[in-house]
Design goal:
7 helices; 37% helix; alpha/beta; Beta-carbonic Anhydrase, Chain A
Length: 189
């Protein structure tokens, strides 16, 4: 695993040798698209390449499982900013097969938190403050249903423009194959 010192040393080299030049672009997506997808490492390069996008073409928002679990959380805020401030006029929600969020067991995550040093009293305080931590950490059992859930949250959000197409797809993280779940141009509200 690289250390912070190694990363910063390489970064000095990267900047000094102008290795950033091939990546220069603006903050506005060239294709006017924002993608919500999973944070899975297999998708970092494969997803944009499988869709024929290069750096600067699209905005990519990532969350565990490509899930929106709160209509006024950070994920939805990012999508709204992409539409109103960054000129995106189309949204893609792209889940994937073999997702770590499918079938996740929240009690095991909570046990891992405690094993790694989170005080169990802190978990009790969070629970007693009105946060249902089990629901907050919950995954899904069916990727298609999960994609449809996120698509519906976006399509039905009171601050989202109704004419923005919101598409749902599932990518195979091994081959890059995209399967259509819902076409935002046809399957509107």
């Amino acid at each position: 695993m690289p250390s912070l010192k190694e990363i910063l040393k390489y970064n000095d080299y990267f900047v000094e040798n102008k290795l950033y030049e091939p990546f220069l672009t603006t903050k506005f997506p060239n294709k006017r698209i924002v993608i919500l997808t999973c944070m899975d490492t297999r998708l970092t390069e494969m997803l944009p390449k499988s869709m024929n996008f290069k750096n600067g073409d699209v905005k990519i928002v990532k969350s565990a499982g490509a899930v929106i679990n709160h209509p006024f959380g950070g994920i939805m805020r990012s999508l709204i900013v992409a539409v109103y401030e960054l000129q995106a006029d189309e949204i893609y929600v792209i889940g994937h097969h073999d997702c770590g969020m499918s079938g996740i067991e929240t009690d095991k995550i909570l046990d891992k938190m405690i094993d790694r040093g989170v005080n169990p009293l802190v978990l009790d305080i969070v629970k007693n403050s009105g946060v249902n931590i089990e629901d907050w950490l919950e995954g899904f059992s069916n990727v298609e249903s999960s994609v449809l859930h996120s698509v519906d949250m976006i399509r039905n959000h009171p601050l989202m423009l109704s004419d923005i197409p919101v598409h749902g797809l599932i990518i195979d993280p091994e081959t890059g194959r995209l399967d259509l779940v819902t076409d935002g141009n046809i399957d509107k509200k």
